[in-house]
Design goal:
Number of helices: 12
Strand content: 5-15%
Number of strands: 9
Helix content: 40-55%
Structural class: mainly alpha
Length: about 350
């Protein structure tokens, strides 16, 4: 990613930051979860994006059956490609495990740290493992890249907050000049109140642009909601995190406004702490037993990329291209991609070996 940004900066060309972030998270998730090199250029990526858009269309288009009749062959072909790729991941893991000469010991380099190996140890059906592997890949790569895209976009539209973020990074790392690598470790990033400006900005961008903008669940048995609503078996409940984020009853009169200050609280000693909201008020990672198991990993990864990215590079949004009414909007999908991507001009802050 840094190499392509450097080329774009030198040639003064426009780059789609969303595509760059998607490639980064795709490769990271492939290595972290599967010990498998994955590129967004693979047929799987295009097939998955198309299948996701078609599935999302079923929730908004009353004539989706007509669309399926006209374009069902491509949809079916994409589904087969997605499932085939999942099995490829599983087969690669099975082959690696069968030739391993070292015992599976816990540790940073252990196969126990690779998700697909854990799945294989607990699930006997390879097709089920393949489905779980693809599901985790989608949850990790798409949502993190898209959330980072909306965060950078929010900062480009609110430059005062970008300045505040850069100043806070300098205060946290006074010996690191702008543009030089930052000593970011998991311990530094995982603290509840670590880098409060970065956390608040990311939380606010995610609140307004939730990675999964609508959610639904189906009851498997008759039940009663906390407010007394009776649900029969098979009832479908839909809620819209995108709409909840704009509710004045939950977030106040400025609910629809990008305001990271709502996440910051000044302490008596002058330090800033992050304000916590319950997952039921802010269900961007779902809530209760269905809480996203990768929540903390996604937050730490996003903070790491966001801080390093803005510390080393300056971005200028290319206005007009892909905008609707002067704003960027979500594309139709099960997640929250930015329609048309985020076109930017890039400037390298300082020549460093990154």
């Amino acid at each position: 990613m840094n190499q392509r940004l450097a080329v774009a900066a030198q040639s003064e060309s426009t780059v789609d930051l969303q595509a760059e972030l998607l490639e980064l998270t795709t490769r990271l998730m492939g290595i972290i979860a599967y010990d498998f090199e994955i590129s967004p250029e693979l047929p799987f990526s295009q097939a998955f994006d198309y299948a996701s858009a078609v599935t999302a269309n079923r929730f908004t288009n009353p004539l989706w059956r007509v669309d399926d009749f006209l374009h069902g062959f491509k949809f079916g072909s994409c589904l087969r490609e997605v499932k085939s790729f999942g099995l490829e991941i599983v087969n690669a893991a099975v082959g690696r495990r069968s030739t391993a000469t070292q015992p599976l010991l816990a540790g940073p380099s252990s196969m126990h740290t690779i998700l697909v190996d854990s799945l294989l140890e607990h699930i006997s059906n390879p097709e089920t493992v393949a489905d779980a592997a693809v599901n985790f890949l989608s949850a990790g790569r798409d949502t993190t890249a898209q959330s980072l895209t909306w965060t950078v976009y929010s900062l480009l539209r609110h430059p005062a907050w970008k300045t505040a973020l850069l100043n806070s990074i300098q205060d946290s790392f006074p010996s690191s000049a702008r543009g030089s690598p930052l000593p970011l470790s998991y311990d530094v990033l995982s603290g509840q109140h670590a880098l409060p400006y970065a956390q608040a900005i990311f939380a606010e961008a995610l609140r307004l642009n939730p990675a999964v903008p609508f959610e639904l669940k189906e009851s498997t048995a008759a039940t009663v909601l906390p407010d007394g609503t009776n649900l029969p078996s098979g009832a479908v409940v839909i809620w819209i995190p995108y709409g909840l984020a704009r509710s004045p009853e939950i977030w106040g009169s400025d609910a629809a406004i990008f305001n990271p200050k709502r996440w910051l609280e000044r302490q008596v000693d002058g330090t800033l702490h992050i304000v916590t909201r319950t997952a039921f008020e802010n269900p961007v990672f779902n809530a209760g037993p269905r809480m996203c198991i990768g929540k903390r990993m996604a937050e730490v990864l996003a903070l790491h990329v966001l801080v390093q990215l803005l510390w080393k590079w300056d971005f200028e949004e290319v206005r007009g291209r892909g905008e609707i009414g002067g704003k960027r909007v979500m594309a139709e999908s099960l997640t929250a991609p930015m329609q048309g991507g985020l076109p930017v001009k890039v400037r390298r802050v300082m020549d460093t070996n990154i």
